[in-house]
Amino acid sequence: MLALHELQRRFAAAVLDSDGSGFEHHIRAAGLSGARRLQVYRNNTRLGLTGALEAVYPVVSKLVGEGFFRYAAAEYIARHPSRLGDLHEYGGFFPAFLRVFEPAAGLAYLPDVARLEWSYHQVFHAARHMPLDPRALANIPAERQGALRFQLHPAARLLESPFPILRIWQSNQEQASETSPIDLSEGGIKLLVFRRETLDIEFQPLRDGEFNLLRAFDEGCDFTGACERAMVAQPDFDLPTHFSSHVARGVVTTFELPDDCFSNPRPRKPS
To answer: What would the pLDDT profile of 190-225 be if each residue is shown by its tens digit?
Structure first.
């Protein structure tokens, strides 16, 4: 007899593998065969995962139509079955999947629209975090400030696309007033997706300097390196004003120093 852990592992594999693995022989049939019972689980699993994708990517679904979306979802589920217990975590590879999904090859903007929707989903479900206390920064000696490594709020995401994905997303909302066609050649966008403490999610288009500053923080650059990247990208960038604004708004929430003796302590999340 199989151990419980091995039985559970094989059952999960059989549900995710439609080709079958002989697991139906371990199922006690009463009315329905083991294979038919296993198929019920497979169908319910696929419906659940398809529903999860539809909930996260409603604009992608609207752009391609329900039938095409469900076809793409079925292919995605077959290649990327859920490995986690939380459905909120499912679907993160869907934008990359769409980029190589041959039937969607004629919709070059679609993967980036999907990235925007996944970012919105992540931001919506991200943990809360207290804003950075300016008094903590005041304790850093001037000669050490260049070594600071700032971190973005858990509910902040940066996106860059050669397509006007924000306008595409906005024009496909239920309350959208814009009905005119969108010219894909009008240019791309650099974007911050951020959830404020009021739980409102906002989209902020960024210029090159601001985007590169925040991207450098997100990639772990120290303050000196981040500032250099911002100024190279946009020589007229007003660094003090924009940095102070993102600290005040809570986009930048904490910092660390290599020796950790001055690091801003991570506050407890508010209840």
So the answer is: 999 999 988 899 999 999 999 999 999 999 999 999
3-state helix/strand/coil string of the chain: CCCHHHHHHHHHHHHHCCCCCCHHHHCCCCCCCHHHHHHHHHHHHHHHHHHHHHHHCHHHHHHHCHHHHHHHHHHHHHHCCCCCCCHHHCCCCHHHHHHHCHHHCCCCCHHHHHHHHHHHHHHHHCCCCCCCCHHHHHCCCHHHHHHCEEEECCCEEEEEECCCHHHHHHHCCCCCCCCCCCCHHHCCEEEEEEECCCCCEEEEECCHHHHHHHHHHHCCCCHHHHHHHHHHHCCCCCHHHHHHHHHHHCCEEEEECCCCCCCCCCCCCCC
User: Which pair of structure tokens corresponds to residue 201?
Assistant: 């999610």
What pLDDT, on the 0 to 100 scale, is given for residue 262? 52
pTM, 2 dp: 0.84
Domain ranges across the chain: 108-271
CA dist 112 and 132 (Å) reads 31
